[in-house]
Design brief:
Length: 223
């Protein structure tokens, strides 16, 4: 027995959320809006990567960004400097967005003129993995300073994403982070995952990532 108390306080809303998520996905499909759900720990580089990505894609598709946080609007400030439309969402203490909150955010943003919406989810490797937001695809960022053991510690997150960006590869020489070990662990959890090493600082790998996103948006809006 553990020397401390463990409480299960999760609300049982899973069934309902899955249904709402599927409905949202269908309506986004009908209006030809792709939605990417971007997740990571705080500080892994979501906002920095987004800014770099928007610089590449903003002249070829209509983009819209949802910035979700418990509080503050610093990320929306960073995004708005790119000229891309953005909305800041405060979750009132919630550590993730569910499908209904995502839908409210999309309504606030306005998606009629958006081909690709990107949700920067609340920084956290646990709760966001448990809630389907209704996104077309899920992406996550693991950054080098976090360590190469994270797929072992947070397997659910690594198993539900379509693409994993390994960010901050510019600092690889200063950390004992083994890229190949991460890839191995991740492929065991999720054989179809696409892994792309990037540096949002130097721009390395950002073209490959932008290409992945470009292709997925095209497929979504064609079918
Ligand atoms: N060295 C390095 N620093 C980075 C990179 N990407 C982001 N950062 C820094 O990491 C910190 C957190 O980045 P941010 O984008 O705010 O992370 P977020 O909390 O996931 O949105 C900032 O100080 C960034 O400048 C990178 O590729 N290399
Ligand atoms: Mg951020």
């Amino acid at each position: 027995m553990e020397p401390f108390k463990i409480m299960e306080i999760k609300q049982s809303i899973f069934e309902d959320n899955d249904q709402q998520a599927n409905q949202l996905r269908e309506s986004l499909k009908a209006e030809k809006t792709f939605l990417l759900n971007l997740m990571s720990s705080p500080g892994a580089g979501k906002t920095t990567t987004l800014v770099k990505t928007l610089e590449i894609l903003k002249n070829e598709m209509r983009l819209g960004i949802l910035e979700a946080d418990i509080d503050s609007d610093v990320d929306a400030h960073s995004i708005s400097k790119t000229g891309v439309k953005v909305i800041q969402l405060h979750t009132g203490g919630m550590c993730h967005l569910d499908a209904d909150m995502t839908k409210q955010g999309l309504l606030g943003l306005g998606t009629e003129d958006v081909d690709c919406a990107i949700l920067e989810n609340v920084g956290n490797l646990v709760c966001p993995a448990e809630f389907d937001t209704g996104a077309s695809k899920n992406a996550m960022i693991l950054s080098v300073p976090e360590g190469d053991d994270k797929p072992l510690k947070y397997p659910l997150m690594f198993s539900i994403v379509d693409v994993l960006l390994i960010n901050k590869i510019d600092v690889l020489p200063y950390f004992d982070f083994d890229l190949e070990t991460v890839k191995e662990h991740v492929k065991k959890l999720n054989p179809n995952i696409r892994v792309i090493p990037i540096s949002a600082r130097t721009g390395e790998g950002i073209e490959e990532w932008a290409n992945w996103l470009r292709t997925e948006v095209k497929l979504w809006n064609e079918k």
